[in-house]
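One record is set out below.
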Amino acid sequence: QVQLVESGGGLVQAGGSLRLSCAASGRTISRYAMGWFRQAPGKEREFVAAISWTTLYADSVKGRFTISRDNAKNTVYLQMNSLKAEDTAVYYCATGPQLQTVEALYDYWGQGTQVTVSS
């Protein structure tokens, strides 16, 4: 059974930084794509970043967010810098067979972690 557990969310002031972690079990992340998505209140869930043999980023986070992974720890990270109020959302980790921006193509999801950026 594949499980993804996110951590690292919290409250931060605009301009600050947070690092999210997603610990995986039941699947070796080096063999799959790992993605981060987010859902703000009243909005649909949206793609943020993904990593496999390369990385993908949403235009809204390019240059501010960095996705990485530690294969030894089977963990993927999302380093978020220069945070803005519009980054406030629940952030979800997901895994799937291919590097994609489409959430329907990811087959396992974490429970989410709240990120709140105060302006």
